[in-house]
Amino acid sequence: MRTVDLIHRKRDGEELAPEEIQYLIEGYVRGEIPDYQMTAFLMAVFFSGMTDREVSRLTECMIASGEVVDLSAISGIKVDKHSTGGVGDKTSLIVAPLAASADVIVPMMSGRSLGHTGGTLDKLESIPGLRTNLTVDEFQVQLKELGLCFVGQSDQVALADGKLYALRDVTATIESIPLIASSIMSKKLAEGVDAMVLDVKVGNGAFMKRQIDARRLAQMMVGIGRRMDKRVQALITDMSQPLGYAVGNALEVMEASQTLQNAGPADLTRLCIELAARMIHLAKKAPSLEDARRTAEQNLVDGSAYRKFKQVIEAQGGNAQALDKFELLPNATGMREILSPRAGYVSVIDAEDIGTASSMIGAGRQRKEDTIDPAVGVILEVKVGEKVDAGSVLCRLYYTKEDQVEEAAEMVEDAFRISAQRPEERELILEVVG
Ligand code: URA
Asked: Where are the alpha helices (DSSP H) in 319-362?
């Protein structure tokens, strides 16, 4: 086989055979195929796409390129949840204890923030003392004892994905549906889960800006899972405005804690109940989805999910008191209010702008190596559809360093549109796939 012939055929829209995809991935990981040829191949995939058979083989090869976690010593159906990334998306902190409090085994392996989107590990690490770098033994013991563990993805899992993602990042080939689907699914399936609930975000704050692309991504990921005998369901959910009110690491932990005490924002609570219910149902802990929803709601209202969250935080070395006493979490030193320029209805809160502005003042990373500031971010005072007066507070920007506050404040101001007409209400959960 010659790499150049495979690039040529993919460029011309042909389907590659399973062994040809294997040749490319193994050759690249071994360093035998150079970056320039792999870049050409990725660009060919970007324009020509991949068939279901190709994307499944690509995912299998990426899984085989690294460590595969064996959770078979832990009995029960292991279910994870994955979001394709959004702004203010703290659902994992709420959904995982909701499902675990219904006896689902939840090996929650998460990532860090990148670009304008947040990451579960960074949010959790704003809790003083909390460790997410558990050893494999610690991870398995905690999973057996508490049914839930929050850990980072090991660099050794799906090695090919790490290498390919870094190349895609600098060659304008991130936004390819088969490449995103195989990247996400290879990491998740290498973690030894039996089932998975995917939250595929759509809107200006998400990777997928159009519902048709989000649907194709969801279908492709569900298909990859099915072909590997895993139970996978995907929800396509709105990310045209931030989820909940808080954006930023410690700020989102506070909102997650309030939500687990049944005092959270309506949109966030609704989505968390739905995601948790699907995990409970996939784990066969409820006879129907309706029963699973009731279980999730009950565990939220009676405090059992919140108790589970505190137990898990403590088990991982975190100070669980900080979940009630927010002054124990990192706190910002400065605050800027963004006011409405006129009376009317909030018709747009651009999630990408809010995420980018928060990231700019330290809530996220521009590059993988950057450190984040856990205290900073944005708290919205309003959501799309609400009526505001001229001069009323739209949101507050929390910061610890003066530099870039001006620029971030301008961006946050520009994120809001105030219209004379009340905007049409947009559904939060747009579709279910699988
Ligand atoms: N998240 C991933 O893990 N991979 C992608 O390609 C895009 C988002």
From this structure: 351-360
